Amino acid sequence: MRCSLIHVLALPLLAVSIGCGTQGTSSDSAGGDVPNDPVAKVVYEFLNAVRAGETEAASVRLTPLALQRTSELELNFSPPGSATASFEVGAVEMIDSDKSVVESTWKDLDADGQPHEEKITWALKLNQGQWRISGMAAELGEDQPPIVMDFENPGQFAAPTSQGPNTSAPRQASQPQQDPFLSGPR
User: Fold this and answer.
1) Could you give the C-alpha distances from 92 to 30, 112, 157, in angstroms and in order?
2) Would you list the DSSP string of 62-93?
3) 0.85 exceeded by the pTM?
4) Where are the domains of the chain?
5) Which CATH number, 3.40.50.300, 3.40.47.10, 1.10.287.990, 3.10.450.50, labels domain 5-22+34-160?
6) What does the angle CA 19 – CA 46 – CA 11 come to, to the nearest 5 degrees?
7) CA dist 8 to 80, 82, 97, Å?
8) Tens place of pLDDT per residue across the chain (186 aa)
């Protein structure tokens, strides 16, 4: 059984425990050519580490604040890896001189062995001259709002409501949401 990337990244930060995936043993890249763009390259390296189940390699691509905050809350970042997963890194959009978003597509098999694809947008910040991931937003479907995760404020996770697919307002786990794509330096 394989998991979606949302289950690997977002749900553990909600303290949801699901047994999915197996430790990937392949070290080959399943993300195509390494991008030349330094922002896209960070996302590529992060997704490649997640795909391979390399916790440390993925963690160092997070902002120091994101790593600190998730560690303080004992929200261990430990991707299970997937030998059947692949990904593509898409367009990079500069939001500000020190903020950017990068599109990606994660592909893997679902629990039934059927191909599954997820569109994920990554929020990145320039930190001490290096681009690092600070959050993500993932599409869940046409009739559902995206899941938005600010890794620097993991207690403020925004998830879709359980009131049905036509409800567009996300519910908060605790405090008002800090959008990882718009938040300023802390």
Assistant:
1) 20, 33, 24
2) B-HHHHHHHHHTT--------TT-EEEEEEEE
3) no
4) 5-22+34-160
5) 3.10.450.50
6) 30
7) 7, 11, 30
8) 344 554 445 434 333 222 233 333 333 456 678 999 999 999 999 999 999 999 899 999 999 999 998 888 777 667 778 889 999 999 999 999 999 999 999 999 988 999 999 999 999 999 999 999 999 999 877 888 888 989 998 876 555 444 444 434 333 343 344 455 454 444
Structure tokens, 132? 């690092």
53/24 Cα distance (integer angstroms): 6
Q: What is the DSSP string of 147-184?
A: EEEETTSGGG-EE--SS-TT--PPEESSSPP--TTT--
* 67 φ/ψ angles, rounded to the nearest 5 degrees: -65, -40
